Structure formats: C-alpha cells, structure tokens
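haha ok so turns out i had the wrong file open the whole time. this is the CORRECT one, sorry everyone. sequence first:
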Amino acid sequence: MIYRGIEIQYIGGIPEDREVKEKFRDKIKLCFVGRLYRWKGVDNLINGYKLLPKEIRDKTVLIIVGYGEDLEYLKELSGNYLNNGICFTGKKDFKEAVGIVKSCDIYIHPSHRGGGLSSSLLQAMCCGKPVVGSPYEGGDEVIMDKKTGILLNDNSPKEICRGIMEFINDRELRFHCGRGAKRFIEENFNWSVSVERYKEILMELSRR
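then structure:
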C-alpha cells in the first residue's frame, strides 16, 4: 500500500509546549488530540483512566486537546478528576496541538469503528510518541504491537487501561516504540517516498 505523505519536516520543526512540560513536570503525560465526538472514543479513554490503580493515576495526567459537541459531557464524565488528573485544553490550532503532543509522553488513540486513517495518530507518531491505540480508524494499519506502540484488542476502557499500564511500567518499551513510530512514519508517509513508489508503478505499467 502507498500512503499519503504528511508534513514531516514542518512537524519536526515545531517546538514542544514548554508551559505544559513545566506545569506537569512531575507527571507522566498522556495525550489525545481530536474532535470531541462520540466516535472518537474519548469517553472510553476517560473511563479507562479512572480504572488505573491509584498509585499509577497519581503520577499521571491526561491532557485532552480539542473541541466538539461532547465537550461538556466529557467534562461531566471526568467528575472529580476534572482539572485534577484530567485536563481539557479546548480548541488549539495545528501548531499548538503538535507542541502539546511533543511535550507529552504517551499518545492515546481510543477511536471507535468507522472513519479513515486518523491524521492525529500519524502526527503523534511523527513526533516520536509511543501510541496506545485501538485497531480502529487505521490503528491496525500503523500500530505494530510492541514496535510502534501497543495495539489494543478494542477500544474498551479496560483495554485502554491495560495499554497505558503496560507503557507506564516499562519505560524502555515506551522509548523503543516512540523511536519505532517516528521511523515508521518517515519511511511510509514521506511525500518523496510516495511519489517514487507511484513512479515505479507507472514505469512498470508502461512496460506491459
């Protein structure tokens, strides 16, 4: 399969959000970026966060970047964890959102079935972030289990919790998957590489 390219160099040049980095310097920072609609599975992400053991939850923060019709519902679902473990940034432009992702440690892809390959997922991988992800919205295409991230069986809260726990308990695995994720994007979502692959196909067809 030949994938579309993404703006790898532009993303690479965006600095991390120093304010987020400093504010949560003593926390393992989990992150989600996307529109806050039902099919994105953010409710399952919040419920998965709540399932974390207290000693793990106390040293993590979940940062949710985006805006949508479910914002107030998701804030209400967060309950006592709102601004006390779960933080909503509201709407951010592309550069701001990438900066926040770069300041975090683990990216979460909790999508339901339906929809194409998630751009936010690709961008997080391009930033070198290890991913905990459902197999939906392209997760099973780009998340190679234990190589570019942790591929979940589904997007249930229990599975999301399992994936987060696995990364939190294994810092080396986080580093390995983050490095693998970035390399995977550079090798498969580079416009130059994609164009060359199309050229090869056209040349092969022209010989027939």
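The mean pLDDT is 92.
again sry for the mixup
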